[in-house]
Amino acid sequence: MHPERLPVVVAGGGPAGFMAAIVAAEAGVQGVHLLEATPEPLSKVRISGGGRCNVTHACWDPRELVAHYPRGSRALRGPFSRFAAGDALAWFDDHGLELVEEPDGRLFPRSNRSSSVVDTLRRAAEQAGVTLHTGLALQAAAPAAQGFALELRGQTHPLTSGQLVLATGSHPSGRRLAGALGHSLVSPVPSLFTLALAAEPLLALAGVAVDPVGLILELPDGGSQRQQGPVLITHWGLSGPATLRLTAFAARQLHTSRYRARLRVDWSGGRSQADLEQLFQQARSTQARRLLASARPWPELSRRLWQHLLHRSGVEPERRWADLTREQQRHLISALRDSVYAISGRGPFGEEFVTAGGVPLGEVNLATMESRRQPGLFLAGELLDVDGITGGFNFQHCWTSGWIAGQALALQLSES
Ligand SMILES: Cc1cc2nc3c(=O)[nH]c(=O)nc-3n(C[C@H](O)[C@H](O)[C@H](O)COP(=O)(O)OP(=O)(O)OC[C@H]3O[C@@H](n4cnc5c(N)ncnc54)[C@H](O)[C@@H]3O)c2cc1C
Predict the structure, then answer these.
(1) Out of 56, 151, 204, 416, which residue is the most buried by the measure of CB atoms under 10 Å away?
(2) How far is the CA of 43 from the centre of ligand 1 (A)?
(3) pTM confidence score
(4) Separation between Cα atoms, residue 141 and residue 386, nearest integer Å
């Protein structure tokens, strides 16, 4: 690789690295080299969003956007006030990719194919003059006169760079590089996973989706987390947006408890005790002769879930509404509002998953993404201790941190 001194090296050909490299090169930086360890850059973008790539989320206000980041949260207000979801939308539009909003706020490329995002980033990098090296991993980096001494895997000749961007995602090599350059690391744990319930009759309802469901996770250390929203019952436990949000916010606590906890579930759609008593009263009078199994207290309640709750409450499904005792009603309302399940472990990941942990935000100047430990070193993307819930928020942080790093290093070079 020539010349031996490279002005800017970006390690990591993922969304954060591409964004940093393109923005720096478009701002006039000559000699931006983007190193990707594997033969194929942007591989997570390609598989993301079930092959559709959920690029960002229609959440335009930075103050609201930060609420979607269990790690990062309010510290991201500054970065998002510089480059948020609306800026990402405009950036992609300027680079020839139209994003389309879905009813739930997620933004996808109009083509519905992640390859459009990959192609857009690759084309923008090429047009801006970024040199992409694939199959080339940064193995070691040490501070040197006016920059960094770099070692590339499989290369023996010495190489230096003026500035270095680490955008290596959750890969251990990037954490090792950041550690060697003076950073501490919050240990990585998985986020955005589903929940397993062992030997639970509820599993027979696999495929039933309920919305909204209230979830309260009670952890052995006395802590708790709440979420509300759609839940999908699967053959191993619970999935769906509310479950994924819950595991994202409780990722660390669940890891500490070895994924054992109690889950209190409100299947009633948030109805109060009084509302439910009234609905039961109505059912007793309007459906008095009908069997409980075939007549639900309200029509939107899933039939299979209702039958499960009858079984759980010990109420015979062949009983008629008119014969439901006060005691049985109490048990049923309690099962609807507050069924308790034992979490037995972590279920498989959903369509999107990320790692919580990485370089603490306090060690980075969030106005520039430059390291506070090592001048000339910039950090972006999932390598940082930032992660979002599902819905495009993880990529948004990559666009934001990559954009800020690219701008800042260009400014630094122009001033030097
Ligand atoms: C299946 C799946 C689906 C997802 N879907 C979505 C979605 O739809 N929306 C969303 O917002 N988020 C999604 N995510 C999360 C998102 O993919 C990540 O948050 C994002 O890719 C992180 O970007 P990054 O650039 O920080 O790291 P990465 O995308 O991991 O890129 C880092 C790159 O650096 C390379 N690398 C590592 N070490 C070195 C080294 N030493 N030298 C050179 N190169 C190196 C790696 O090979 C990799 O290509 C999904 C994740 C998964 C796993």
Answers:
(1) 56
(2) 7
(3) 0.93
(4) 23
Angle at 275 between CA 273 and CA 277, to 5 degrees: 70
Using one digit for the tens of pLDDT, what is the confidence trace for 263-285? 999 999 999 999 999 999 999 99
Assigned CATH topology for domain 5-185+359-415: FAD/NAD(P)-binding domain (3.50.50)
CA–centroid distance, 45 to ligand 1, in Å, is 7
DSSP-derived secondary structure letter, 222: S
Round to whole Å and give the CA distance between 128 and 277: 66
Q: Region 24-30: what's the mean pLDDT?
A: 97
Assigned token pair, 140: 């070691």
Model confidence over 58-83: pLDDT tens digits?
999 999 999 999 999 999 999 999 99
What's the CA-to-centroid distance between 14 and ligand 1, angstroms? 5
Q: Locate the ligand 1 atom nearest the alpha carbon of residue 41 and give its number.
A: 49
Atom of ligand 1 nearest to the CA of 49: 8
Protein residue closest via CA to atom 10 of ligand 1:
392
Per DSSP, the three-state class of 386 is coil
Average pLDDT over residues 32-38: 98
pLDDT digits (tens, 9 = 90+) for 306-331: 999 999 999 999 999 999 999 999 99
Give the residue extent of every domain in the chain: 5-185+359-415, 193-350
Measured from the Cα of 18, ligand 1's closest atom is 25
Report the C-alpha gap between 302 and 255 in whole angstroms.
32
What does the pLDDT read at residue 2? Answer: 46
The set of residues, in sequence order, having a beta carbon less than 8 Å from that of 305 and lying 6+ positions away, is 205, 208, 210, 267
Among 106, 136, 245, 394, say which to mutate for ligand 1: greatest number of ligand atoms within 8 Å of CB. Answer: 394
Looking at the chain, the whole-number percentage of residues with pLDDT higher than 90 is: 94
Residues in contact with ligand 1 (CB, 6 Å cut-off): 11-17, 35-38, 41, 43-44, 47-49, 53-54, 137-138, 167-169, 171, 173-174, 351-354, 381-382, 392-395, 398
Query: What span, in angstroms and rounded, lies between the C-alpha atoms of 378 and 372?
Result: 9
Please report, as a single letter, which amino acid is at residue 377: L
Closest ligand 1 atom to Cα of 56: 11
Q: Which two tokens stand for residue 311?
A: 């079984």
Identify how many contiguous H helices and E strands the chain contains and give both numbers. 13, 18
Minimal-distance CA residue to ligand 1 atom 50: 352
